[in-house]
Specification:
Chitinase A, domain 3; seven-stranded antiparallel sheet; isomerase; 2 domains; PPIase_dom_sf; 331 residues; alpha+beta
Amino acid sequence: MKKGIIILAAATLGLAACNKFEKGEGDMTYKIYKSEGKAKIQEGDFVKLNGIQVIETKSNGDSTLVNTYDNERPAFFPISKSMFKGDMVAALKLLGEGDSATFKLNLDSMAKYSGQPKPTGTKDNYATFTVKIEKVLHKAANEPDSTFEKKKRAFFETEYKALIAKNKASEEGKIKKYVSDNNLKTTTSASGLQYVIEAAGNSERAALTDTVMVDYTGQFTNKKGDGKINVFDTSNAKIAKEAGIFSPMAQYAARPLVLGQLAPGFIEGVQLIGVGGKIKIVIPSKLGYGENGGGPINPFTPLVFDIELKGIKKGSAVAQMPAPAMAPATK
């Protein structure tokens, strides 16, 4: 874990007692860990940051709602007018580029002014945000909005291109590290898919037009800050709850998926087993979301799936379209 993440994670675990926090405006309290002494963020600025949002629940202790380090995707935050005293804008105005801090913000106020419902099962009425300000694009006094909008677009495009280049350069290393760390004895196919067949299943194989019933869990190759596997989608309720991605609206059971509509790597993996079979596949981005990414998936991101094939429903013999570069439904 990187040093910056350790500092931020320590704060979210409550290692800094509440009585050491300073009083900000409204109901906000804060603790600044590092200050570079640079110009403070002002209304109109555009900020790149990494952060962790945590709430304390009545039954399960701390619950992480957002962690940009786990997603390997920093957030970009336009500094608009404050919606209420002690909101996130007010908090960020205490910081400058390179600074890090923890803020406690009022959940009732956040729900009222954001239009988003307050999380259920909270132990107290505060959300804890631990942030690191990576870069700040300052808007000059009297600078026309149209001029600054162009600067913002150029700033974002530059940062995003750097993220893509970093992901592309590190993808092969991520795959090798995941395989090594998990002591996997994989087989690599001609396409570049790596897999471990845990159970072969019967002799039946699915065609692209078939609907397959699969239990699966999709994860990133990097672990989360708490050391747990970094799950982004699953058909297993227990795993979803442990990963903090459980949704009451989701169907947690074997899911029907038209095979030909899935990622090439997922298709290939499913076709290596029969009904009753289990397989772990490591999908390079060229067989997944590719250079564009999608949803929670960054460009050039390798994915890992654990798949159990529960059944095959034969499809009609219609013309088969090329499978789009997408994985099963993600959150």
